[in-house]
Design a protein that fits this description.
With about 325 residues, the chain is mostly helical. The protein folds into 2 domains: about 110 residues, no CATH class; about 200 residues, MetI-like fold, CATH 1.10.3720. It contains 14 helices and no strands. The longest helix has about 35 residues. It is flat. About 35% of the residues are buried.
Amino acid sequence: MSASVSPKEEQSSNFAFRVQTILPIVGVLIALIAEVLLPNHPNLKYADLPHYRYFLYISLAVVAVLALLSLFWESLRRKYSYRGAFVGGVYIFLTLLDLVTAKWLLLPQLYFPSIARIFHVFFEDSALILTCIKSSFLLLVKGILIGFIAGMVCGIAVGWSRGANYWIYPLIRILGPIPSSTWTPLALVVFPSAQGAAVFLIAFGVWFQITILTASGIQSVKKAYFEVSSTLGASNLQNLFKIAVPAASPSIFLGFFNATCSSFVALMAAEMIGCKSGLGWYVNWQKTMLSYPNVYAGLIVVAVFCYILVTLQFKVRDRLLSWQEGVVKW
């Protein structure tokens, strides 16, 4: 007969400590000590910018709270301890950047500004950066939506119909591998505005990825599935939309992931050909002005923007395809 566990004993069993949870605190403290105690180089420009220091103070509070909560929350403790060394390493890397740029001035200031100068851009140009994010997001959504619809139509046709495969697939093999940026001169002539040309360049890259993986996913479905469904009275369209497309959905999502990544490359190129707003335009404009702190800030925003969109996409994929095993993780 097993003995019952009292609430106090159960609570004490959940209370635990892992050394890895304090590694982020150590990393932030090292970065903060280097920033506060070590003097900046005498020739450093913009030496009195406090935004990086504020970021480190906020980071210290956040990692301390997470370490405290991990003492009582087992799932958080497991995940946080696993990422602890990486998080601490990120702040060590920021410390090294701070040393070689602001403290010792080992690199040219024009091309390698201090971290404080880059952080200052997010406050100095916040309104313009938000406007560029909105513009890039709308442009990206239009291009991805058009490319996804066109890719699904072509992919289903090529994967399901022998006639469409005979006539369309050779064109896909010829046109698809061509980088989207090479179509820029033609797009500027065909479309009346730079926005329309940018949407076309994004949609073209998405179309190819979706088409190829949708077609290959449909063609890889086992024929036995269709034989059984046809025996039970399913029509040709029911076989397509009830069996082929759902079975090919992992390949379709993989194509959508590849298309999303390639669409960011097309977006940056598209916004540099004549658009007056957007993250790609912002980075290119700041580069021509030799304002490299703004360039690095824009690249950081692009990376975060891409990461958030891809992460949301995989969250949707994991929810819709919870039955699928062995898929790509994010």
